[in-house]
Write a structure and sequence with these properties.
By secondary structure, the chain is mainly beta. It is 6% helix and 48% strand. It has one domain: Glycosyl hydrolase domain, family 43 (Tachylectin-2, Chain A, 5 Propeller), CATH 2.115.10.20. 50% of the residues are buried. The structure holds beta-D-mannopyranose.
Length: 311
């Protein structure tokens, strides 16, 4: 089978051995360009299972250096402290103007909520709000307003097979207009347990590129793979293409073995001017990796299988 994505031959690009502070696993990083650099906001899990965010910087997108201290640790001040007592996880970073907005999972005895933080320089990070109740696991912000409103995909943990929803906001804090837009597609075993947004959507001429994850239950736990869909530019509720096959599945040792085996999970991808894309992804909830592909090929794969029919 010809892979649509090519794994970097020197994966993993970051392991816990590269992290200067206490870190048992480093994975599911948000990814953006900042100035001339590539920046990864890393999920770093400590010995107690609580995650914080570290920062890694690179000039070429492959060789990263991790900053000596975490840049965000679970909050100690209200209202965030109660929501983050078990850690902060899976940051997704979206640039709008000169601000980088970060949606992250705040984990506590209540469950998961989506927190919003922001930075302009990756030095000072400011928490803005808790933007959902429980139980929301993933949220990705579009890089521009659509129809005058901010837009996001989100994944409430509801129903027998949780899917992707959309919501809208005028201030990034209060969100409404929620509706489901994509469910696990009937008959596709690789994603029939649940799906969720992965990387923040990427604008292309033919629509918004949505790289999402799909989960399949097995006797040995869940297997996480990546899939791809394309959404209408003006009305991203409309899924105009959705590939039936997955685009990345656990295969290499660093994806099969780790804290949680059989997982590839993305929180961020970087589009390049030459039409290629770098998809950053956690392997087995243990290490950070990157694979590359062509944006056109991904869009084509989604459009070739036709519009979504899952709802
Ligand atoms: C999801 C999230 C991710 C994790 C994945 C596999 O539900 O918790 O952070 O990578 O499970 O364990």
């Amino acid at each position: 089978m010809n892979d649509i994505l090519t794994r970097y031959e020197r994966n993993p690009i970051i392991t816990s051995a590269d992290v200067p502070f206490e870190c048992h696993a480093v994975y599911n990083a948000g990814a953006v360009r900042y100035g001339g650099d590539y920046v990864l906001l890393l999920r770093c899990m400590g010995a107690d299972g609580r995650s914080s965010f570290g920062l890694a910087v690179s000039q070429d997108g492959y060789n990263f250096e991790v900053r000596p201290e975490p840049v965000m640790v679970p909050a100690e001040e209200a209202p965030f402290a109660a929501a983050e007592e078990r850690g902060i996880e899976d940051p997704r970073v979206t640039r709008i103007g000169d601000t980088y907005h970060i949606f992250y999972s705040a984990f506590s005895r209540r469950g998961f909520q989506i927190g919003l933080a922001r930075t302009r320089d990756f030095v000072q990070f400011e928490r803005v709000a808790l933007t959902t109740a429980v139980d929301y696991r993933n949220s990705v912000l579009f890089p521009e307003k659509i129809g005058g409103r901010y837009v996001r995909f989100e994944r409430p943990n509801c129903g027998p097979a949780p899917g992707i929803w959309i919501s809208y906001s005028s201030d990034l804090i209060h969100w409404g207009g929620q509706e489901p837009i994509m469910a696990p597609r009937g008959g596709l075993v690789w994603e029939d347990m649940k799906i969720g947004p992965g990387a923040p959507p990427i604008r292309t001429e033919r629509g918004w590129l949505n790289i999402y994850h799909g989960v399949m239950p097995t006797m040995n736990g869940c297997v996480y793979r990546l899939g791809v869909a394309v959404h209408d530019l003006e009305d991203p509720r409309r899924v105009i293409g959705r590939a039936r096959g997955f685009i990345l599945a656990p295969r290499e040792p660093y994806e099969l073995l780790g804290y949680v085996p059989n997982v590839v999970f993305t929180c961020g991808a970087v589009p390049e001017e030459d039409g290629s894309i770098k998809i950053y992804y956690g392997g087995a909830d243990q290490c950070m990796n990157v694979c590359t592909g062509s944006i056109d090929d991904l869009v084509e794969a989604a459009l070739a299988d036709g519009p979504d029919d899952s709802l």
